[in-house]
Write a structure and sequence with these properties.
The protein contains three helices and no strands. By secondary structure, the chain is mainly α.
Length: 94
């Protein structure tokens, strides 16, 4: 039996930027749409929010992969912080 998981409540992130940066984001969206169309997967609406959210998700995952994922508790955070401190210390001693 599958357990019901309610959808997460949306949260808005606002980003102040320049018009030229917005143009770059719009070009990025067009690139994503071209890839989706070429794959025959143009069923999802691809907009700036979709593209940015996907890249932020990927960036978060990549940032925490080195430490075994996002820490779930204080003990895990302390282990991540210790690993970072050790890495910084060893790179400074070179």
């Amino acid at each position: 039996m599958t357990q019901y998981v309610p959808p997460e409540k949306p949260w808005m992130l606002r980003l102040r930027s320049t018009v030229s940066f917005k143009a770059k984001l719009e070009a990025w969206v067009r690139l994503w749409r071209a890839h989706a169309k070429a794959r025959g997967d143009a069923t999802k609406p691809i907009d700036i929010s979709y593209v940015v959210r996907n890249h932020i998700e990927e960036g978060i995952s990549a940032a925490f992969d080195e430490y075994g994922g996002i820490p779930k508790d204080e003990e895990a955070w302390k282990a991540v912080e210790a690993a970072i401190a050790k890495g910084v210390k060893s790179s400074q001693s070179r």
